[in-house]
Design goal:
Blueprint (H helix, E strand, L loop, with lengths): L20 E4 L3 E4 L3 E7 H15 L4 H12 L18 H16 L6 E6 L3 E5 L4 H16 L3 E7 L4 E8 L17 E2 L13 E2 L2 E7 H10 L21 H13 L12 H11 L6 E6 L6 E7 L3 H16 L3 E9 L2 E8 H8 L1
Antiparallel strand pairs: 1-2, 1-8, 2-3, 3-10, 4-5, 5-7, 6-7, 9-10, 11-12, 12-14, 13-14
Helix pairs in contact: 1-6, 2-4, 2-5, 6-8
Length: 353
């Protein structure tokens, strides 16, 4: 999957994405139209899905497209509703205008540019993020616009071009009640995005934003797979964690190998600073508490995306800092709060002896 560069080289221009998001005390980063979102490097996202598909030995694109479609239905499209025109301008023209406006603003989220080939059933996507995510989003908005249920098919060249076709299906389209967003606990946004417009980037590295519910839905569909046992699992199997959690955690750790930077995590203050920078500021979760790393490493955090992904990011940083392999024991999970303990493999072997 290609890494898409920012299409606009303008400097000293406030990126439009920053005008659409706020920080919520309980839900991380909130987008005014898309709800709870998280940010990540494109490279990390591509690597995570590559590793996950390799581990489960299955293609997961259709599941991701389903998750994107299912949760995009809940988004608010009122900003892009087709407006009534004057002097007999066709309804189709209004729909096309609304779609084009929506398509152009998706780029600010880290998506490819969508253009109509044969309205409303054939489209081209230029420089897609991940075709499966984009197809789900396009299908959801298109259904809400033309009030028809659709089936999708897509093709891509593994690079900068993709095409998607839709066909109506004989299923009544029911408009899903869209969520109402609570902005009563807004706090200033501190998301680091380069100046300019177009595809968002951070320090010149392309990033994207994904609705958190898309990842939760995708994670839920993975339960339908027959997950093989992992040799030497990273997460101890108990009432709170299973083999699927191990698989997702492993994919997350491997995806972090693209990050060459090493952080010091020798005490609580260093860990808190790292967590705020790597996890909380990107909308993944929020630190509740952690010890001073003088005995077992007990960490409690709130998760906005599936917790094994965050646990993998934490364990990867911990292993790099200590130069030894680690393992995770899950103490408890209550709603979206998880308590984990990280132990070194050396300690685990000694205990077994």
């Amino acid at each position: 999957m290609p890494i898409v560069t920012n299409s606009d080289d303008s400097t000293n221009i406030h990126h439009p994405l920053l005008d659409s998001i706020i920080h919520s005390e309980n839900k991380g980063i909130i987008h005014h139209e898309y709800g709870s979102i998280f940010c990540c490097k494109n490279e990390w996202l591509f690597q995570f899905f590559h590793e996950l598909e390799s581990i489960v030995d299955s293609t997961l694109a259709r599941r991701l497209a389903h998750a994107s479609l299912s949760n995009s239905l809940k988004f608010s499209y009122s900003k892009w509703d087709a407006k009534k025109g004057f002097f007999g301008i066709s309804k189709t023209k209004h729909y096309v205008n609304a779609f084009e406006k929506w398509a152009s603003e998706r780029v600010y989220l880290g998506r490819g540019l969508v253009t109509s080939i044969q309205w409303p059933y054939s489209f081209h996507i230029e420089r897609p993020l991940m075709v499966s995510i984009e197809v789900g989003e396009i299908c959801a908005y298109l259904q809400s616009l033309i009030n028809e249920s659709l089936r999708y098919h897509w093709r891509d060249d593994g690079g900068s071009n993709a095409s998607v076709t839709f066909e109506p299906i004989d299923v009544p389209y029911t408009r899903v009640q869209q969520r109402s967003l609570d902005f009563t606990h807004e706090i200033p946004i501190s998301l680091n995005i380069d100046e300019g417009v177009g595809w968002p980037s951070r320090d010149g590295i392309p990033i994207t934003t994904i609705p958190t519910e898309v990842f939760h839905e995708f994670y839920y569909t993975l339960n339908e797979l027959s997950i093989k046992n992992v040799d030497d699992p990273l997460i101890e199997i108990n009432d709170f964690a299973n083999m699927l959690d191990n698989v997702v955690c492993i994919a997350s750790i491997r995806a972090c190998n693209i990050d060459e930077q090493r952080y010091l995590l020798d005490n609580y203050e260093q860990f808190k600073l790292w967590f705020n920078h790597r996890i909380e500021s990107n909308g993944l979760g929020k630190l509740v508490s952690a010890n001073n790393f003088d005995s077992d490493n007990r960490i409690i955090f709130q998760f906005n995306i599936p917790w094994p992904i965050i646990a993998g990011i934490i364990l990867h940083a911990w292993q790099r800092n200590n130069g030894i392999l680690g393992s995770i024991h899950v103490e408890s999970i209550e709603e979206n709060i998880v308590e984990i303990i990280i132990k070194s493999r050396r300690e685990i072997v000694q205990n077994l002896d």
